[in-house]
Amino acid sequence: MIEKDFVTEGLRRTRIDEYLEKELERAGYGGMEIQVTPLGTMVIVYAERPGMVIGRGGKTVRAITQSLKTKFDLDNPQVEVKEVAVPELNARIMASKIANMLQRGMHFRRVAYSTIRKIMGAGAQGVEVTISGKIRGSRSAVAKFTEGYIKKCGEPATRFVTEGFATAPLKPGVLGIVVRIMPPEATLPDKVDIIAPVEVEEPVVEAAEEDVEEIEEEVTEEIEEVEEDLEELEEELEDLEELEAAEEDVE
């Protein structure tokens, strides 16, 4: 059945992700993608320190490729390593760093606030850090730290917000760390940009002195022509009046 194939593929991807997270913990593992191509299966690994993923002479990446082929039955796996451009905006890397600092004995509040400052300093719109477990004593508790704006539900939350999870085994018990980040490039549908009006100045056409003189000469010539036409009309009217007077005398 198609549903069974989806479940099987999802389980395999999850197991591969857990395997890579365990093997590449020191390299700053930030996630992976699997792309099926005609030549085989491309596994893209994102890491903060890609040199540790590749290893000396490519030893580590060859061992990972062989494990993906034998343990997870991938068809001709090819591993590509990419460096995470801004580790502070990768939720999985930051959750792992919080777990490491808690294991070194740092106070959870100090760890959470310092991590939030780093993430917001990298340009994130919002961040939420949740630490749960025996953080204050023998009883379990949950501490949540937030800053900025972050979506909790709806399509923008699933599309833009990235989430990372890590665990920190301590003597009192295991602490769970969840980091949720709203990246700077996220554009929410309810965002409205108000554009200030732009004043458009009407262009002022300045005529040159020569153009003004030419226009004045043309206007003067036209006025003279009109005056000459008026004089001719007056003469014709006088001639008509004389003819009418002569006709009256003849009668």
Automatic annotation (TrEMBL):
A single GO cellular-component term on record: cytosolic small ribosomal subunit
Domain KH type-2: 16-85
Keywords: Ribonucleoprotein, Ribosomal protein, RNA-binding, rRNA-binding
Function of the protein: Binds the lower part of the 30S subunit head.
Any one GO molecular function term: structural constituent of ribosome
Organism encoding this protein: Methanobrevibacter ruminantium (strain ATCC 35063 / DSM 1093 / JCM 13430 / OCM 146 / M1) (Methanobacterium ruminantium)
Chain spans, region Disordered: 221-251
Biological-process GO terms, alphabetical: translation
Gene (name only): rps3p
Family the UniProt entry places it in: Belongs to the universal ribosomal protein uS3 family.
Oligomeric form and interacting partners: Part of the 30S ribosomal subunit.
Pfam families found in the cross-reference section: KH_2, Ribosomal_S3_C
PROSITE patterns linked: KH_TYPE_2
Protein name: Small ribosomal subunit protein uS3
Domain of life: Archaea
